[in-house]
Design goal:
Blueprint lengths: L13 H8 L2 H9 L12 E2 L15 H13 L12 H12 L11 E4 L1 H13 L5 E6 L4 H8 L3 E8 L5 E2 L1 H7 L4 E7 L11 H14 L2 E5 L24 E6 L12 E6 L4 H4 L2 H10 L6 H13 L2 H22 L5 E2 L9 E6 L10 H12 L1 E2 L1 E2 L8 E5 L4 H17 L5
Parallel strand pairs: 1-12, 3-4, 3-6, 6-7, 7-8
Antiparallel strand pairs: 2-9, 4-5, 8-9, 10-11, 11-14, 13-14
Helix pairs in contact: 1-6, 3-11, 4-11, 5-6, 5-10, 12-14
């Protein structure tokens, strides 16, 4: 360009590109790019996603659709909403969550967000300060690592123990934490492990956090999606022990992740979050960020009130049957082991025995070749912090799940070391 500057004074931020590559979406995009587009004989089987909404068995509640139509049709919600969310929506969410609580929530304890992802962004930004660190589970949900990196918040990982049903390694937490530790993240029901923590175990987590002087961030995006022998218990029942920030949404239980309506809930009868400035910082972040669509917020009271129990029962039944099918079929594959049958969420973690495979060196290569040869997408364990493991999604139409697992078995047989 003639007469231009010798050097332009701007450039892209490389850290953002690096952070995006390590998210679930980044890995799935990479795997989809490895699909053999010349082979149209096999439909793509998505066993790596967390969004079953486009499958017929996972349609949302008719009451939810009606609520959206009513909100849009009223013409009252084409405006901007309040910073923290519409009052009626916050009050309805408090009432909904109070069904499981000894200590009752108020509407002022609820802050609406653009799905659970924005809630993660907010708490990461609010808690970051020079030298601060946060305790994250391994395996876990990598969006936490991405947000921590963006906010210069040091990550320290604690292990979930497969031999103990993916319980938290509580002894390790005390060794990891120091005076700069701000919080521990607990994901329940578990993504990616499909576990559900017991009441007693969660109480021990709360007591450990209290001892260390840190808050608990309870990621409950999959709240109430529990179908095993362990009852789902919300972390906020232990708010009298330790301050709790709960992150939730309607995305998973109502199967509407594209509606992008989530929340942060402060559970803190002792007022510690207020005194420490955390609540003011949450409101401050919301003041400089985007809001969930106003008409979605307005629909929330009707969605929560009118969705019938049989809708939830049906989804739980489908997930239970799918988890059983997934677990039983994986047991037939010699090079893959499942340490615990899933009891919640939409996923299961399985261990890959690389030594039994001839021409595959790790979980990422396994998943890349599986995508290319069988058009099956499975998330490599490295994406969630566990090398040579796999995260398999079973929230999918049963016929697709069956077909995907048949192809997975055939792939493993084809690449098995010859005896």
């Amino acid at each position: 360009m003639e007469n231009g500057p010798k050097k332009w004074g701007f450039q892209g931020k490389q850290e953002l590109r690096a952070a995006a590559a390590t998210t679930v979406r980044g890995y799935l995009n990479m795997l989809m790019g490895n699909i053999n587009k010349d082979d149209d004989s096999k439909a793509v089987i998505p066993l790596g996603h967390g969004d079953p909404s486009h499958f017929p068995s996972f349609k949302t509640s008719p009451a939810a659709v009606d609520a959206i139509l009513d909100a849009v049709g009223s013409g009252k919600y084409n405006c901007y909403g309040p910073t923290v969310g519409i009052l009626s929506a916050r009050r309805a969410i408090a009432d909904y969550l109070n069904r499981d609580l000894p200590c009752k929530l108020l509407e002022d304890d609820i802050y609406l967000t653009i799905g659970c992802t924005q809630a993660i962004e907010i708490v990461s930004a609010v808690l970051s300060r020079p030298g601060a660190n946060i305790l994250l589970p391994r395996p876990g949900f990598p969006y936490y690592e991405a947000c921590a990196a963006y906010n210069s918040l040091e990550v320290r990982h604690f292990d979930l123990l497969p031999e103990k049903g993916w319980e938290v390694d509580l002894d390790a937490i005390e060794n990891l934490a120091d005076e700069n530790t701000v919080a521990i993240v607990i994901i329940n029901p578990g993504n990616p492990c499909g576990n559900v923590f017991s009441y007693d175990h969660l109480k021990k987590v709360a007591e450990t956090a209290q001892k260390l002087g840190i808050m608990v961030i309870a990621d409950e995006a999959y709240d109430n999606l529990a179908f095993g022998s362990t009852k789902y218990v919300p972390m906020r029942v232990f708010a009298s022990i330790v301050p709790i920030l709960t992150l939730g949404s309607i995305s998973k239980r109502w199967i509407v992740p594209g509606w992008r309506l989530g929340w942060i809930v402060t559970s803190d009868p002792n007022g510690i979050l207020q005194k420490s400035g955390v609540i003011d910082s949450i409101i401050g972040f919301l003041n400089i960020s985007a809001d969930p669509p106003t008409f979605i917020q307005a629909a929330i009271p009707q969605i929560l009130e009118n969705t019938k129990d049989d809708f939830f029962s049906k989804i739980i039944c489908i997930l239970r049957e799918a988890a059983d099918l997934c677990y039983n079929r994986i047991k037939e594959i010699p090079c893959i082991a499942c340490p615990k049958k899933p009891e919640g969420s939409m996923f299961v973690m399985v261990k890959l025995n690389i030594s039994m495979l001839e021409d595959i060196n790790d979980d990422l290569e396994f998943c890349m070749k599986l995508a290319k040869e069988e058009s099956v997408i499975i998330l490599p364990g490295i994406a969630v912090g566990l090398k040579n493991w796999l995260r398999v999604t079973f929230a999918i139409e049963s016929s697709f799940l069956e077909e995907g697992l048949i192809r997975l078995k055939a792939f493993c047989q084809r690449h098995a070391k010859k005896q």
